[in-house]
Write a structure and sequence with these properties.
mainly alpha; globular
């Protein structure tokens, strides 16, 4: 039985939003269990590698067999379908730094903070980096949306930053969440700048993270520089983290997000993923029993409004471009 393109698009949207929301709630719940952030990052990379490294090896071998010497450059002994420099850039920001910073943040701050500061601040970091690296123009409407996102982030994180003077450490998690979002935004802008395929980028990120992080983790644990609790963690917890963090957050959501973009386009997809901050905040309150203070509600509202303003800007710009194209080619019908 084959599904229609619309059904596949809707399914991809549901899967993407569900996994992105679950990532925030489950990562916070995992911070209260046995494993350390370094352990969880290891299991995330290992779980994704079991799927993506054989896929990357097969992809490279098929290209070489079909194109011979004209095949695109690969790296890391044929495990990454992208050149080494591109693989290292994407892997550093999208694989290593993002995972380590995000998981470390959940050991200091609640998931309700992460629900606003990570997916909510992504448009802010992405717009600033795109303006710098890609020379993208920030229109007044987009600037207004970014200002609302900053205001929402300050409402959420400002309280914990003020509490730092009284000895609180929630601010550390908030800073880590913001840094994680900036790393993912850097990865997104670099992927756009190098015009890489989403599947190839995911494979390259995982291959780089695997070959760099696994030996580094083993060495640091052996030297006593970092602690590991893998030996005392229940096997069910280890398997779950490998399956969800690696197979779900890296592999499945990467593919489903690509399919969602293919069906809905980037504008409507951004509107759909704007559901993540609200859903993850409600999930943290419902499943983890975290309090929902007024500043979280206000910050969530401001961030969501800011994201939608950015979507509105893109939608109007696209409509204007379509209208100009229609005027320049009056004999053609605009779909």
């Amino acid at each position: 039985m084959r599904f229609s393109p619309r059904a596949m698009g809707l399914l991809a949207a549901v899967v993407t939003v569900t996994i992105w929301t679950g990532f925030i709630v489950i990562a916070r719940a995992s911070a209260q269990r046995t494993l350390t952030p370094f352990d969880i990052a290891l299991l995330r990379i290992t779980g994704a590698s079991l799927v993506l490294l054989p896929w990357g090896w097969w992809m490279v071998r098929r290209r070489v067999a079909a194109l011979g010497a004209a095949a695109p450059a690969s790296s890391l002994a044929g495990l990454s379908p992208l050149p080494l420099r591109t693989t290292a850039l994407l892997g550093t920001f999208g694989g290593l730094l993002y995972a380590l910073l995000a998981y470390a943040g959940f050991f200091h701050a609640p998931a309700t903070h992460a629900s606003v500061l990570m997916p909510g601040s992504l448009p802010l970091w992405t717009a600033l980096l795109a303006a710098w690296l890609l020379r993208d123009h920030i229109t007044p409407l987009r600037a207004a949306g970014l200002a609302l996102i900053v205001a929402g982030d300050l409402l959420v994180g400002g309280r914990s930053l003020m509490a730092a003077f009284a000895g609180g450490d929630v601010w550390k998690g908030d800073v880590l969440f913001m840094l994680a979002a900036s790393c993912w935004a850097t990865y997104s802008v670099l992927a756009r700048r190098h015009a890489v395929d989403a599947v190839q980028a995911t494979i390259a990120v995982t291959a780089f993270a695997c070959l760099v992080y696994l030996p580094s983790y083993a060495l640091l644990v052996a030297l006593g520089a970092i602690s590991s609790r893998l030996s005392v963690a229940p096997w069910t917890e280890i398997v779950f983290q490998m399956v969800f963090q690696g197979g779900g957050s890296v592999v499945i959501s990467g593919i489903s997000f690509t399919r969602m973009i293919q069906h809905f386009g980037p504008v409507r997809s951004t509107m759909i993923t704007a559901l993540v901050p609200g859903l993850s905040a409600m999930g943290a309150v419902f499943f983890l029993g975290e309090p929902m203070h007024w500043n979280l509600v206000a910050g969530l509202s401001l961030v969501t409004t800011g994201i939608l303003l950015g979507v509105l800007r893109t939608n109007r710009a696209r409509s204007a471009t379509t209208a100009v194209a229609a005027q320049q080619a009056p004999g053609r019908t605009v779909p």
